[in-house]
Design a protein that fits this description.
The chain has 622 residues and is α+β, with helices and mostly antiparallel strands. It is 34% helix and 18% strand. The structure holds flavin-adenine dinucleotide. Residues 157-163, 180-183, 220-224, 227-229, 231-235, 341-342, 374-376, 379, 383, 555-556, 588-589, 599-602, 604 line the site of flavin-adenine dinucleotide.
């Protein structure tokens, strides 16, 4: 059966990718022209990486896409002339049936991303394929080929910002720690940042994860040693004091005053070299800042965890976990087990038995006296629920829903050296914040998919274009559930009517600031929205973001296992110990009681540091 279906699927995908790429490629750009075999390979590889419960439905829908052609024309889709293929693609794209639109959008996004990844600053081919293991540390401390049975005093599951600092401080306190990470151990420079290579190497499911709901919200997570810190922008905030106050009052979190967290913020800021840019900010970032300032709105340069060497300008090095806490952990004698996913935990005689699977060795069983689960806001509740631990776990996922707009200016605002934009408009914070996004040609092309006639513009005008976002704190919430027989969890999220209004207002205000800074055209990421050419066009924007018609995304997820002493809603105590267990802890983004309204890694790390120190001082009791 599989032998018949695979070539069928391959033919249909190949024909779809060729048709979609041809539509979005500027004819005058030879580098964007066929052959598109590299695009087809990328799309097929991405399909293989997508969450396991979605793989078969997408395959079935793709084969279903082939059927109308066979019925109407007596030929399969891939053998039809290009014009007829395009008609069918358009019909599905504009279909009232959501799954038809979603299917075409899925293939179009991947094909367009890969197509525009062929461009570099000069509009010509790129790119880095280097992949290396860091060679800085004693290899004996990195377990490449584990025994079938391992044991340790403390197992830390997940090596993102929460897990890396947890493991490091425990090892430095002399504990015998095994840090287990599902992804590979790659150096920060193993691939260029914000490229499709990075998605393949370091993102979970190749970056194709989605929270289901009336408005699907795409989200991404890191899956490599260092977790999200290896792929993120490094924008740093402390947790706002009023948010800490909400957690104290509404969740009965102890030891969460600003003064309690101050030493932890300061220690993390020092270790990660949190600092402002030494040189001028990128032009696209300054554009937003200028527009907001003219309107009298508060706009700030956000510091980042970057180390800059004298005389190299803004070309610093991001202080991800593989640059900071992971090497410190290894130097302190900790053991790292990469490419190993923990599938379930079980208590046996008061100790934990971890059933894990290593990339090449298969099943591995790990015994531990104490376990810290630090898999991030989606994977931590998924693992606990798979293990039958469900009390207030995975019921209260929060995130920052985000909508984007692409802007075109008369002058150059973008270049291959642009890097990460650093300004955020905080006038309406914590409810709404705006900023500038990564604006390389592939990301610009993706941001323009709701305005298909503009996508080709990217190949010759990308230096005059940039993408911007409006992000809301939101009051909606979601769930994380494991699905029997599947590894990947089902994530659902529901926006409230209030969230839709905030997103509408955020988009409007962002567009206002961009017109104020001289934008000539704006292209909101909302289906069927018109392009906006002048200030008066802003009244064409909806007051509230419509159901199903906006391309929402997020990179900030938390609150799926909230901490606190209120056992009616909290999964763990105030310091991350899971209620009802003596030797089981959560220490990652899942603990944040609500959305912080700011980039969250600073909060995740300060809390993780506070909790480990509390554990080491034996303060965390049942
Ligand atoms: C593209 C992007 C940009 C971002 N930009 C910023 C920013 O500028 N500023 C900011 O503050 N925040 C940013 N964030 C968010 C920030 O990266 C996260 O808040 C942070 O990484 C969360 O840390 P964590 O330790 O909770 O989880 P993660 O970083 O998600 O780490 C969890 C790790 O655990 C591993 N794991 C999960 N389950 C298992 C298992 N069962 N077995 C073994 N290993 C497992 C995962 O593979 C992963 O490596 C960004 C995120 C992304 C994705």
């Amino acid at each position: 059966m599989e032998r018949r279906i695979n070539p069928w699927f391959h033919d249909t995908v190949s024909a779809l990718v060729y048709s979609l790429a041809q539509t979005n490629a500027e004819p005058a750009r030879p580098k964007l022209q066929a052959p598109y075999n590299d695009l087809v390979r990328f799309v097929l590889a991405q399909h293989a990486r997508m969450p396991d419960y979605l793989r078969t439905p997408i395959l079935a829908a793709t084969l279903g896409f082939d059927l109308p052609a066979a019925l109407r024309h007596g030929h399969r889709f891939h053998t039809l002339p290009p014009a007829i293929r395009l008609r069918q693609i358009e019909a599905w794209k504009n279909s009232p049936l959501g799954f038809k639109r979603d299917l075409v959008r899925y293939f179009e996004s991947l094909a367009t991303l890969a197509l525009y990844s062929r461009m570099d600053a000069g509009g010509e081919a790129q790119c880095s394929t280097a992949q290396e293991e860091p060679s800085l540390f004693s290899p004996a401390k990195v377990i490449d080929h584990p025994e079938r049975e391992l044991s340790c005093e403390i197992a830390v599951i997940g090596s993102g910002p929460g897990g890396a600092i947890t493991a490091c401080l425990l090892a430095e306190a002399g504990r015998k720690v095994l840090l287990i990470e599902e992804g590979a151990y790659l150096s920060l420079g193993s691939c260029a940042p914000f490229t499709h290579e990075e998605m393949s190497q370091k993102y979970r499911n190749g970056g194709q994860t989605v929270a289901m709901g009336a408005n699907k919200i795409s989200y991404v997570e890191g899956r490599c040693v260092g977790g999200g810190s290896e792929i993120n922008s490094g924008l740093y905030h402390r947790t706002p004091p009023d948010i800490l106050e909400t957690w104290r009052k509404d969740f009965k979190v102890e030891g969460i005053e600003e003064a309690d967290l101050q030493p932890h913020f300061e220690a993390c800021e020092k270790e990660l070299s949190v600092s402002l840019l030494p040189g001028p900010a990128p032009a696209a970032s300054l554009k937003l800042h200028e527009g907001a300032t003219r309107l009298g709105w508060k706009s700030i340069e956000v510091p980042r965890w970057f180390r800059y060497d004298a005389g190299t300008g803004n070309a610093g090095k991001r202080q991800s976990m593989t640059e900071t806490f992971v090497p410190r952990f290894l130097r302190a004698g900790g053991m790292l087990l990469p490419r190993t996913s923990v599938e379930t935990l079980r208590l046996e005689g008061g100790k934990w038995a971890l059933n894990a699977r290593h990339g090449s060795m298969g099943p591995v069983r790990i015994g531990a006296e104490t376990v810290f689960v630090c898999g991030g806001a989606v994977q931590t509740p998924a693992l606990l629920r798979r293990s039958g631990i469900t009390g207030n776990i995975g019921n209260s996922l929060r995130l920052h829903p985000t909508v984007k707009v692409a802007a075109r200016f008369a002058e150059t605002v973008n270049s291959a050296q642009t890097g990460v934009p650093v300004h955020q408009v905080k006038e309406f914070s914590p409810r709404i914040s705006f900023g500038c996004s990564i604006s390389s040609p592939p990301y610009l092309a993706l941001a323009l998919l709701e305005h298909p006639e503009q996508v080709r513009e990217v190949s010759h005008s990308w230096q005059k274009m940039a993408t911007y976002y409006a992000m809301i704190t939101g009051e909606g919430r979601g769930t994380v559930r494991s699905i029997p027989k599947f590894r990947d969890p089902l994530v659902r999220y529901k926006l409230t009517p209030h969230d839709r209004r905030d997103l509408g207002e955020g988009l409007l205000k962002l567009c206002e600031a961009l017109f104020e800074s001289g934008a000539k055209a704006l292209y909101p990421g909302v289906a069927r929205s018109p392009q906006l050419l002048k200030h008066d066009d802003l009244n064409k924007l909806p007051d509230a973001l419509p159901s199903g018609l906006a391309s929402l995304m997020t990179i900030h997820l938390f609150s799926s296992c909230p901490m606190g002493e209120d056992q009616t809603k909290c999964a763990t105590n105030s310091f991350g110990r899971v209620h009802g267990f003596k030797n089981l802890y959560v220490n990652d983004a899942s603990l944040l009681c609500t959305a912080p309204g700011v980039n969250p890694q600073g909060s995740v790390m300060a809390l993780a540091r506070r909790n480990v120190m509390s554990f080491l001082n034996n303060k965390s009791t049942i």
